[in-house]
Amino acid sequence: MPCLNDMKIIKRAEPGKKEYLELLLEADPSEKMLDRYLEDGTLFVWEEKGTPVAVAVVVPVPGGACELKNLAVAEAARGRGYGKRMVEYLFRFYHGKYPEMYVGTADISCGCKGFYQKLGFRYTHTVSGFFTENYPEPIYENGALIEDMAYFVKELK
Description:
It is globular, with a radius of gyration of 15 Å. The two termini are 21 Å apart. It has helices at 21-27, 31-38, 82-94, 112-118, 130-134, and strands spanning 3-5, 8-12, 42-48, 51-61, 65-73, 100-106, 122-127, 140-141, 144-145, 149-155. It has an 8-stranded mixed sheet, sandwiched between helices. Strands 8-9 form a two-stranded antiparallel sheet. By secondary structure, it is of the alpha+beta class.
């Protein structure tokens, strides 16, 4: 069910997920990697006046949990709380459906780890070499090569 508020809407995109490819690639620069989880995931789109400002993809994972695989905010909308509010919406949406939500992010000081920790995620582990082994091209953020993936979990009970 869409969430309406002052011309804002968060909806699930089924079908037509690839319609949001450009925004999804902001968070995951490999279409090949996106294809690995987009089909099985639920794509949430936050629109304002018909324009997507944020997207998120959540997939079920073994063990009965879910994972936030992609969270992207349009460049023009960054810094205004869309990412935080999208994740908070996902917490409410999945509360009672899954006991916990995981998220993986670059294990560098890009601010992503702090963002998720402020939302109540706690660090669980790091997968060394995840990005260098799974992506065809090196990924850099703020001039630093991204190699490892840090995982976090949030209880949804």
